[in-house]
Every structure is written in structure tokens, then in C-alpha cells.
């Protein structure tokens, strides 16, 4: 690619990195490949990301953030009843992960490798997601729809109990006939567990 | 090993197969290794198990059955209240899987490979376990402790919702600090979901 006249931003580097990862796979992709794709020196890339590990962590965070951002709008949507909001949020999480796995299996496999090596980034992502769930459950407690002495603990339990429908390790299960029904059955049971006694 | 004078039973072959798998790993273990360990010809092994695949499936089934048998006693124990029975059963499942992973990591890794190649055996095992769960939930519905219009579907949901605590793919999580609390939080939530309205 010819040298670009656009300013070299972190975002442009991350876009190029994702493309390089998609093309070469996580084992072979190098900072030099990224620099070449952008038509800049590898030193220019290192001015934005000090190490290859930092670059890989940043591109992984960007990929994970795409999911969290979509979901945060649902978590904050006070026009939906908390039960609906919880159900919609879990369905959107499942759908987002499944779409990533289906639409671009190579990139999904790549990010499964990257998330394995960037523990901190994944931990922050999970904390972000359970934080969103906590706010939905708190809203339900405030409105009297849910009973949860510790909304944060309840959010964690809901997140763990629905792992089959968002943990990338289950991506093969997501293709199976009936997985939607399985999802609904688990969510129904969890919502009954959260429901305030009438 | 010298030729044995004991009768060559399927059980003896399976014992030897497990030992060979433990020693050589799933990729390298052969029927000839098993025959040699028993001091018999490989033809004698093939009289009991017609193919290498059949032998691997049988040894996997035996390994999985060890878990189901322990659990079936709890599922059938009418002296425990259904809520206690459900909790004890899930705790025993978690404990059995965790013990297998901790006590003999090589054999556990071997069986993770074998379960990946013997889909039918695994499906039967999962059907057996959810069948046991169904009977516990039916007992709870009969006693008035649980509400579940479809106990089989509820059992499936409980099994899926607790995957983090029995699916071998999570074996690394089982070592973490706090995993017991996570387990208890999920089970508490599920039990509240099953509880009949008072």
C-alpha cells in the first residue's frame, strides 16, 4: 500500500491490525505487517503502541468494546421494564456473540486466541458487562419488580448462568437446532428467580 | 507383562486401556499397546471390541458412568427434601468433575479428547444426567416444593445454567478463589426460580 497522507491515528492502526490479523492469523501477524499495510515505518506504529503485546491488547479491547457499547444502550433504557430490559440485554449479548462467530469465523477464531493471551482486557470487559447487568437489576429492585439483596452478586450469577449463550467456548452450540429455546428456558428460570414475591 | 491366567473380560480390557491412555496419551495409544499390557494378542482384544473406535467409546463411557452412578443415588434419595436433593446433586456433580480434573490432569485431558470424538456416548451421558435432574424436579412438583409445568425442560435449563460448574471446558475456572461462592449464587437463584409461589 502506498504511503498514506492521512494522519496516523491509533484507530487507523487498530483497523489495519484487525485486517492483518484476519489475513495472517494471530500466530503470524507482526507489527511490520501492520506498518506495511499502512505504508508507514514500524517505528510509527510503536509511537502509538509501545509493544506488540500492547497493540494486540488494544485491538482485542476494541473488538470486545463493540459488543459492550451496543448493550450499554439497552442497560440504560429506562423506557423498558426491568424484566424486558434484562431479557433484551441477554438476547442482544447472545446475538452479538453469535453474529461475530457466524459472520467472520476466521476473525472470531483469531480473537479467541487473543482473548486467551490478554487476561486483563477480558477481565475489564467482563466487569463492564456485569456492571451493566447490575444496573438493570438495581433498576428492577428500585421498581419493585426484582428481589435481590445484593444486585452485584445477582448480576454475576445471571452472567454465569447464561454462559452457554455468550461464552465463545460454546460457539459450536450456537448453531444447533433448538438453542433459542434453550436460551429462553434459562432466561425464564432466572427471571422467576429474581422476581419479587407478589 | 507376562500372559495372564485370568479370564480376559471386557472390564479388564477397559482397565488396561485407561492405563495405556494415561501413559501414552490419546494420540499414541493403540490396541496393540493394550494387548501387550494384558499379555494377550490384539485379536483377543478385538473379540471384545470390534474396532479401536469402539474400544475408545467404551472406555469413555466407563469414565463418564462413574460420575452418573454416584449421582443417581442422590437423585433417588427420597429422604432428602427436593430442594436439598437438587442442591446436593449439583454440588456432587461439580465435586466429581473437579476431582477428576485435579487428581489426574493427564487422564482428564485425555478424556477431554476422547469425549470430543465420541459424540453418542457423551449425548447418552448428558441425557442420563438430565434424566436424573428431571426426576428430582418431578419429586419437587409432586411435593409442592417446585413449580415447573415441564420438569424435563426445567431440568435441561438447570443443567445448562450450571454448565460453568460441570462442563470440562471450564476446568481452569474450578481452581479459582471464590468459585464455590459463584456456584452457590447460581444454585440459589435457580432454586428461587423453581420455588412454588407461597
UniProtKB/TrEMBL annotation, chains A, B:
Annotation: DNA-binding region: 30-49
Keywords recorded for this protein, A-Z: DNA-binding, Transcription, Transcription regulation
Xref: PROSITE patterns: HTH_TETR_1, HTH_TETR_2
InterPro entries: DNA-bd_HTH_TetR-type_CS, Homeodomain-like_sf, HTH-type_TetR-like_transc_reg, HTH_TetR, Tet_transcr_reg_TetR-rel_C_sf, TetR_C_27
Ranges of residues in domain HTH tetR-type: 7-67
Taxonomic superkingdom: Bacteria
Pfam families, A to Z: TetR_C_27 (PF17935), TetR_N (PF00440)
Leader sequence residues: none
PANTHER family the UniProt entry points to: HTH-TYPE TRANSCRIPTIONAL REGULATOR RUTR, TRANSCRIPTIONAL REGULATORY PROTEIN
Protein name: AcrR family transcriptional regulator
Native source organism of the sequence: Streptomyces achromogenes
Amino acid at each position: 500500500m502506498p504511503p498514506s497522507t492521512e494522519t496516523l491515528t491509533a484507530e487507523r492502526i487498530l483497523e489495519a491490525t484487525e485486517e492483518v490479523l484476519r489475513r495472517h492469523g494471530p500466530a503470524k501477524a507482526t507489527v511490520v505487517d501492520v506498518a506495511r499495510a499502512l505504508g508507514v515505518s514500524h517505528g510509527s506504529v510503536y509511537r502509538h503502541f509501545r509493544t506488540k503485546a500492547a497493540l494486540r491488547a488494544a485491538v482485542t479491547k476494541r473488538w470486545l468494546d463493540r459488543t459492550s457499547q451496543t448493550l450499554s444502550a439497552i442497560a440504560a433504557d429506562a423506557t423498558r421494564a426491568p424484566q424486558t430490559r434484562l431479557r433484551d440485554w441477554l438476547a442482544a449479548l447472545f446475538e452479538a456473540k453469535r453474529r461475530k462467530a457466524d459472520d467472520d469465523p476466521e476473525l472470531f477464531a483469531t480473537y479467541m486466541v487473543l482473548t486467551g493471551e490478554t487476561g486483563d482486557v477480558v477481565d475489564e470487559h467482563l466487569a463492564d458487562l456485569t456492571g451493566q447487568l447490575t444496573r438493570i437489576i438495581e433498576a428492577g429492585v428500585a421498581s419493585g419488580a426484582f428481589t435481590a439483596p445484593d444486585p452485584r452478586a445477582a448480576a454475576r450469577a445471571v452472567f454465569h448462568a447464561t454462559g452457554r449463550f455468550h461464552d465463545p467456548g460454546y460457539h459450536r452450540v450456537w448453531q444447533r437446532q433448538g438453542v433459542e429455546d434453550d436460551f429462553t428456558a434459562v432466561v425464564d428460570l432466572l427471571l422467576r428467580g429474581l422476581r419479587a414475591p407478589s
